[in-house]
């Protein structure tokens, strides 16, 4: 069996917090490795969802070789 897909999340958008992060936390085949944002709330969000790595720029996350997939949330306002 293949290992878990290691996710990175670009931003602290509400849709990621309300929908994606809870789903990935419950998934047996996925884990969130990193989140990237310059928003000061990123530390609280990472703690809430057990995300071990916080990047202050998107570029840093995109260069992380341990991230297999990236989610780019966008809130519709």
Distance between the termini: 40 Å
Average pLDDT confidence is 93
- The number of distinct structural domains comes to 1
Number of strands: 4
Any idea what the shape is? globular
Largest sheet: 4 strands, parallel
Figure out the total of helices: 3
Structural class: alpha/beta
Care to describe what's here?
It is a single chain. By secondary structure, the protein is an alpha/beta fold. It has one domain: Rossmann fold (3-Layer(aba) Sandwich). The protein has three helices and four strands, in the order βαβαβαβ. The chain has helices spanning 14-26, 42-49, 58-62; strands spanning 5-10, 30-36, 53-55, 69-71. A four-stranded parallel β-sheet has the order 3-2-1-4. The longest helix has 13 residues, at 14-26. The N and C termini lie far apart (40 Å). 26% of the residues are buried.
Features:
single chain; 77 residues; alpha/beta; Rossmann fold; four-stranded parallel sheet; 34% helix; globular
What is shown here, in short?
The chain has helices at residues 14-26, 42-49, 58-62; strands at residues 5-10, 30-36, 53-55, 69-71. The protein is of the alpha/beta class and 77 residues long.
């Amino acid at each position: 069996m293949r290992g878990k897909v290691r996710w990175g999340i670009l931003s602290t958008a509400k849709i990621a917090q309300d929908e994606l992060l809870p789903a990935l936390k419950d998934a047996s085949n996925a884990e969130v490795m990193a989140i990237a944002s310059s928003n000061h709330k990123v530390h609280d969000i990472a703690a809430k969802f057990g995300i071990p790595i916080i990047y202050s720029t998107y570029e840093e996350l995109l260069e992380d070789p341990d991230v297999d997939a990236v989610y780019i949330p966008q809130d519709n306002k």
